[in-house]
Amino acid sequence: MTNQALFPDLDGASVFITGGGSGIGAALVEGFVAQGARVAFGDIRDSRGFANDLGARFANAPLFLECDITDTEALRRSLAEAGAAHGPVTVLVNNAANDDRHTLDAVTPEYWDRMMAVNLKAYFFACQAAAPGMAAAGRGAIVNFSSISYIMGNAGYPVYTAANAAITGMTRSLARELGPQGVRVNAVAPGWVLTEKQRELWATPEGLADHLSRQCLPEHLMPEDLVGPVLFLASQTSRMITGQCIAVDGGVVVSG
Q1: What is the residue extent of each domain of the chain?
Q2: Could you give the residue numbers annotated as active site?
Q3: Whole-number Cα distances in Å, 75 to 14, 85, 117, 167, 175
Q4: Burial of 97 (C-beta count, 10 Å sphere; 0-12/13-18/19+)
Q5: Residue 245 Cα to chain centre, angstroms
Q6: What is the mean pLDDT of residues 227-254?
Q7: Is 248 within 8 Å of 191 (Cβ atoms)?
């Protein structure tokens, strides 16, 4: 990972990250650990090896909690376990997602429910579980991962884009609701980040070249490129930023 700016208030902070075992989530776990944070992360896959590897490099080894975020009670238990180990969670990063490709005619009610459970429902109930502890502490930062796919109006995964549009709307409403308790809620909308999963399943030379031609910055995004923006939004450096959706995409979409 490239050198990141240091955010002193994150040293010792209790952080919970969903989907932290691979891809962007793994980069985020390492980024927060490097800041000195007390990190717990959930993943449906066994990520003890990754946690142990970081523990060999840093004194503040992250806590891995095996968790299916579509199981709301399991998600709540994981957040409670993180709080018991590290103190009340004051930084929540909702990162886990599933951008499975699909078409309108192929979607069944069962598929809709599964996709929404991962891409939206889990975000809401993680926020719900973390908010009381943040309010009691008088501070907190929630960072929800959205996607520029819905801003672009991309075809090929309409349930996924619907969920990400909803994440942005939820972020703005929760920022208003939780602001009086000192809790900030923001979203990050990545562009096409070349995780191992993306390379294996969907990244063709033609597709990559076409997407790169839309970027202002002609360089593909890597998981590490999301770490700095999330650290910034989690830190008191951004203490007066809330209710925002920040695109980290090399300049594909614009706002304002």
Answers
A1: 8-248
A2: 160
A3: 16, 15, 12, 18, 22
A4: buried
A5: 12
A6: 97
A7: yes
Count Cα neighbours of 245 within 13 Å in the Cβ-side half-sphere.
Answer: 25
Is 256's pLDDT higher than 70?
A: no
Q: Are 82 and 65 in contact (CB under 8 A)?
A: yes
* Residue 177 to residue 175: CA distance in whole angstroms: 6
If pLDDT is split at 50, 70 and 90, which confidence band does 2 have?
low
Sequence-ordered list of residues with C-beta below 8 angstroms from that of 8, at least 6 positions apart, any chain: none
Neighbours of 12 (CB within 10 A): 13
Q: How far apart are CA 224 and CA 1, in angstroms?
A: 6
Q: If you classify domain 8-248 with CATH, what class do you get?
A: alpha beta
Cβ 171 vs Cβ 233: under 8 Å: no
Task: Give pLDDT tens digits for 138-197.
Answer: 999 999 999 999 999 999 999 999 999 999 999 999 999 999 999 999 999 999 999 989
* The residue to which tokens 């599933």 are assigned: 98
CA distance 123 to 59: 30
Please, which contacts does 67-72 make with residues 24 or more away whose CB atoms are closer than 8 Å? 67/18, 67/42, 67/43, 68/44, 69/18, 69/19, 69/42, 69/44, 69/96, 69/118, 69/122, 69/126, 70/114, 70/117, 70/118, 70/121, 70/122, 72/121, 72/122, 72/125
